[in-house]
Amino acid sequence: MDPTDQDASADLNARLLQHPNLARNFDRDYPSGVATSAQLRAMEKDREKQTGHSHLLNLPYVLYMASHPGSPDANGIGRSILITLDHFCERFSLVPGFRGAFSPLHHGIWKHHDPEFWSVLALAYVSILLDRGAYVVKQFGKPLPCGVRGQKPKDADLLVGESGRADIYLDVVMKHRPRFKTADEARHELITHADEKVGAKFSSALASGIAAFVIVVCVPSETQVNILLGAPEVLAPSTAHELGRTGKVTACYYALAGSRDANNELIWKLFSRDELPSVQSRIADSLSGS
Questions:
Q1: Which helix (H) or strand (E) holds 229?
Q2: What integer best gives the mean pLDDT of the chain?
Q3: pTM of the shown model
Q4: Which stretch of 188-197, 199-208, 250-259 has the lowest confidence by average pLDDT?
Q5: Kindly report the CA angle at 171 between 289 and 135, in degrees rounded to 5?
Q6: Is the dihedral of CA 70, 229, 121, 49 positive or negative?
Q7: Which of 6, 174, 207, 259 could form a disulfide with 122 if both were Cys (CB 3.0 to 4.6 A apart)?
Q8: 255 exposed, middle or buried (CB, 10 Å; 0-12, 13-18, 19+)?
Q9: Residue 14 burial (10 A CB sphere; 0-12, 13-18, 19+)
């Protein structure tokens, strides 16, 4: 291994070890042999280009962001992502199906067309959000009832319990490159993604009377944040009627965006419709691509 890579891996590994619950899911010397200095530099340049892939993100690069001295905002967001993933591992590692839900962080980390890191990140944020509310996360990757005979049953991302009510099958949709330019386009885009997920995952299961939720998480650019700030109703939940569906199905929408903590450090948070006023209109350039 190139000495530069050894030094870089050691620095990133030291950062990872600051989050022991997350580190426990990787080899002791991670990311040695997984991410080279050349790969990280190439990824950084690709993300910065106007015609590049600003949506690219993986765990080695988040470790790099959290350790990089050049950008305080990138540092803050990198650290906040690591804290979230560490909390996710601490709270849910013993929940059935966790390893399968977490496994994309180990595989396909250099995929350019659709980095799987985003899906795990969205699942982590949503699981923590539910856990802090009135819900209990019972299982990751729960097979749905009423599958087609002879075919492998489809899985819901989460099986969630609420006191005194029937369990809820829940799927998380991560939209890390929304394309909307107006509030109307934003609402249409979010509903379309929710409806596509319902059609692909829950259409047959709903007939059996299950309760289903779809949560769409979008990562808006700076311009798109300002659109949402001007029209927070874009993130209002959708009923089955608005989705053009029958049965017990609801779609909820969140923005994953920047906020300042008590130390004025930029962190990532999930924002609902009612929480939008506290979002920062300027998202870190290192992540928004705007």
A1: helix 222-230
A2: 84
A3: 0.87
A4: 199-208
A5: 110
A6: negative
A7: 174
A8: buried
A9: exposed
Residues paired with 173 in a beta bridge: 216
Q: What are the residues facing 268 on neighbouring strands?
A: 258
Q: Is the peptide bond before 20 cis (omega within 30 degrees of 0)?
A: no
Closest CA to 201 of 186, 219, 213, 191: 213
Alpha helix segments (H runs only) across 133-212: 183-197, 203-206
Give, to the nearest 10 degrees, the angle between helix 183-197 and helix 222-230: 100
Residue 267 is encoded by which pair of tokens? 């962190």
Scan for tokens 């997920």, then name that residue: 197
Check residues 220 and 34 and name the one with the higher pLDDT: 220
Q: How far apart are CA 200 and CA 47, in angstroms?
A: 31
Percent of the chain with pLDDT over 70: 85
Closest CA to 206 of 151, 250, 165: 250
Which pLDDT does position 136 carry in this prediction?
Answer: 93
Distance CA 250, CA 214 (A): 6
pLDDT digit string (tens) for 136-186?
999 999 998 865 555 577 899 999 998 777 889 999 999 888 999 999 999
